Amino acid sequence: MIDNHIPVHYSNRSRRLVDRLTARAIGACGIGVLLVMMLLFVWLLWVVMPLFATPSMQPGTIQPALSAQPAVALGVNGRWGWRIDAQGAGRFFPLSGAQPEPALKLAQGPLVSATSADNSSVLLLQPNGNFRLVQPDFSAPDKPPRWTFPLGDGFITGVNGQLTQAALAAVAGNSWLAALSDGRHIRLLRLQVGRPVLSDTLASGPVDHLLLSPNGRLLFASGGGQLRVWRIEDEQITLRDTLPLPHPPRQMALLSGGRSLLIADESGISQWFDIADEKGVHLHRIRDFAGARAQALLITEPQRRVFATLSAAGEMQFYASKRDGAFYRKSIGKDARAASFAPQGDGLLIERRDGWQYWRVDNPWPDISLRSLWQKVWYENYPQPDWVWQSTAVEEPFQAKFSLVPMVAGTLKAAALAMLFATPMAIAAAIYTAWFMSPALRRWIKPAIEMMGALPSVVVGLFASLWLAPHIASMLSGVLLLPFALGATLLLCGPLLRRLPPRWRRLATPGGEIWLLIPLLLLVSLLCLWLAPLADRLLWGAPLADRLPGGYEQRNLLIAAAAMGFALVPLIFTLAEDAIFSVPGALGQGSLALGATAWQTLSRVILPSAASGIFAAVMIGFGRAVGETMIVLMATGNTPLTEGGLFHGVRTLSANIAVEMPEAAAGSAHYRILFLSALVLLIFTLALNTLAEVVRQRLRRRYGQYEGQG
């Protein structure tokens, strides 16, 4: 007897050692992946968290009073402060507390003064009607600042009457517009270097407060229970609005840019700005700031839509135009007589009777809050509250709008529609390939579909934007009809197959039906894409895209969904086909042996066993769709809209990051909000994958008995 047994020598000890090392290596790699994810999460949080940090104020040393007279004009520029008192004495003083510059007599008091919005010019009016325009000049960094007189060293005469109110706007580099009032009339002065003073007189009624917009286009006056607004255009002055006021204003101020008017009265502080409607552009009361009250001082920042109130008791409250109420409070001392913000809002100069004090303010992003990022905000000149993303604009001054809702909505819409396009096609192809197709044909078809996944997404996006988009626009009616036509064709193929001649039915052998289906589906597609647009033009005279009531954008959600769905099909198909093909063959063979049909075996045995794998394939595809960048970047038009439909553009979180990150200044609010977008995308992906894994495990436990029988 011949012994054919070949002895195999192995060491159980060495095998156990290899198993332990392999298990530890796999575990270490898994822990490493988790650590990388945690580090990425922590890094994103580290960049984002300063957006929501609480502001702070650091007091400087209290310095002795510069004059017994109260200040009528006060400002800050760099390391210097400046003031003009009620008797016309102007003085510069270092904010470090060093010796101040000697005072210069700029005018003879008592004075009525007006300061331009950027604190660059001050108009001083004397009781006799003479006036002078002065400017603090900080152009020489190595020398102390000085006073300049752009209209000349002398006083300008010609203003009659006892003036009580004044307003000033620096219209251009060498021209200004001044509004003066004696309590009943308003006189406009056009001041320009080297030219005589031009004036216009307005009959306005009682005037208690007077303001000019920074560009000199709007004049606001309150008095007699009314708010009046004049439109100033070259030589034409028009009374545009006359609005009743429930309470007489105690204070009025313009936010940076001059588009928002603040009115403080006994009911609180309200914000007003222009809104265009069918009757034209008119001023409207937009909001009342929660908890805000008229206080001793109302101070606005020169370059941001931020203002503060300071009570006689010394409580300071900060407000921003995008927030409903105060976002910061601090007690800074009693009896403040005047205050002025630094140009960048990073400092606050406070003057009291007994001295002055400079406070350093840390408030870099006052407009950013969870509400402004996720809820509707009523922006200046918008007809209603809305979700808006607009990080930059050509116009000045510009208020950045950072709502993440349009990008989140665009991400979900694009991903959901792409999955609606890709999932049925990919899973149906996987079912047919794994269960019905002949093995010989499967060896060719499966690698061919998987090779589709090797196409770079930028190539797919380029193809969609340059070729697919214009063709779909010209054949839109046929494209919309195509899914119904293909579905009807597939449903009719079963009954029609039995009526074919025997020689044709031989081609439809089990697993070879595709040779009949593919030419038929291609023929139906060509007819649908050719006949439907042709009939559309003959009946209506124009393609469907030109007749849509909501308009049609050539790069839109439909284009992005079709292109992204094409890119998702190979991924979902491969994973789903592997899950179906991996079901033990004994399960299907046993079901067929018991008399079940192929469809009954598929629906009741094979698919439940592969359900966890198919679900995982769908979720992985959805995660890929959420994070897709280049296709949606090139095929959607990048329009950050929330309410846009199928034929309008969208913008996704990933595309927004790719587009705007190169232009965002490092450390700016724009930069950090883009990182917040990445954090939202990461959290959404992690939550989605976690949910998918939980569902997959439940499906696996539910249908585990099938695998156990295998």
Automatic annotation (TrEMBL):
PANTHER family: PHOSPHATE TRANSPORT SYSTEM PERMEASE (PTHR42727:SF1), PHOSPHATE TRANSPORT SYSTEM PERMEASE PROTEIN (PTHR42727). Residues 408-692 form the ABC transmembrane type-1 domain. It is found in: Cell inner membrane; Cell membrane. GO terms for biological process: transmembrane transport. The chain crosses the membrane at residues 21-49, 414-436, 448-469, 475-493, 514-535, 555-576, 605-626, 671-692. Belongs to the binding-protein-dependent transport system permease family. InterPro entries: MetI-like, MetI-like_sf, WD40/YVTN_repeat-like_dom_sf. Keywords: Cell inner membrane, Cell membrane, Membrane, Transmembrane, Transmembrane helix, Transport. Its main location: membrane. The keyword Cell wall biogenesis/degradation does not apply. This is ABC transporter permease subunit. Pfam families: BPD_transp_1 (PF00528). It is a multi-pass membrane protein. GO terms for cellular component: plasma membrane. It comes from the Bacteria.
